[in-house]
């Protein structure tokens, strides 16, 4: 980054062409990485079932057993039900748009690298937690109220609302971190702004 002093107009900051090219390269790399993740969605879904079994199994009667992209839950009267984490239910569908948004911010704005990376990491972690809670809710409602009522309300109604909430929250987190101005920058900008003399 270089600075060009202009007479009577303070200092104008310009981004070098090399840095702009690097930002574009990283943005395209992020999109390529998202595409690779998409092609490996089966492996990601298997990890999601294992993660769900790890933390939710002690909390659910009969526990949760992972099996490939399925997680197994026992419902009364002792029937074992397999829930499949399909492509439409994986956390990838929440993370991929966040990656695309972060890539666009990096390519077309002057937001710092660290802010873009922080926003993507934090939002991805948040939507992962939210999606895990959604899967746990589906398992709990199905075990509690059965397939006819519990699964329908847990998956189609409450689960869908949770997914939409997670999607919107992830976008807000990325944008909030990207464009938030800290107090130090605000004070520095205020100090550098010349004050007009008041006439009496």
UniProtKB/TrEMBL annotation:
<protein>
    <submittedName>
        <fullName>Exosortase/archaeosortase family protein</fullName>
    </submittedName>
</protein>
<dbReference type="GO" id="GO:0005886">
    <property type="term" value="C:plasma membrane"/>
</dbReference>
<keyword id="KW-1003">Cell membrane</keyword>
<feature type="transmembrane region" description="Helical">
    <location>
        <begin position="81"/>
        <end position="108"/>
    </location>
</feature>
<keyword id="KW-1133">Transmembrane helix</keyword>
<dbReference type="InterPro" id="IPR019127">
    <property type="entry name" value="Exosortase"/>
</dbReference>
<keyword id="KW-0378">Hydrolase</keyword>
<keyword id="KW-0812">Transmembrane</keyword>
<feature type="transmembrane region" description="Helical">
    <location>
        <begin position="157"/>
        <end position="179"/>
    </location>
</feature>
<keyword id="KW-0645">Protease</keyword>
<dbReference type="GO" id="GO:0006508">
    <property type="term" value="P:proteolysis"/>
</dbReference>
<dbReference type="InterPro" id="IPR026392">
    <property type="entry name" value="Exo/Archaeosortase_dom"/>
</dbReference>
<dbReference type="Pfam" id="PF09721">
    <property type="entry name" value="Exosortase_EpsH"/>
</dbReference>
<feature type="transmembrane region" description="Helical">
    <location>
        <begin position="120"/>
        <end position="145"/>
    </location>
</feature>
<feature type="transmembrane region" description="Helical">
    <location>
        <begin position="21"/>
        <end position="43"/>
    </location>
</feature>
<dbReference type="GO" id="GO:0008233">
    <property type="term" value="F:peptidase activity"/>
</dbReference>
<keyword id="KW-0472">Membrane</keyword>
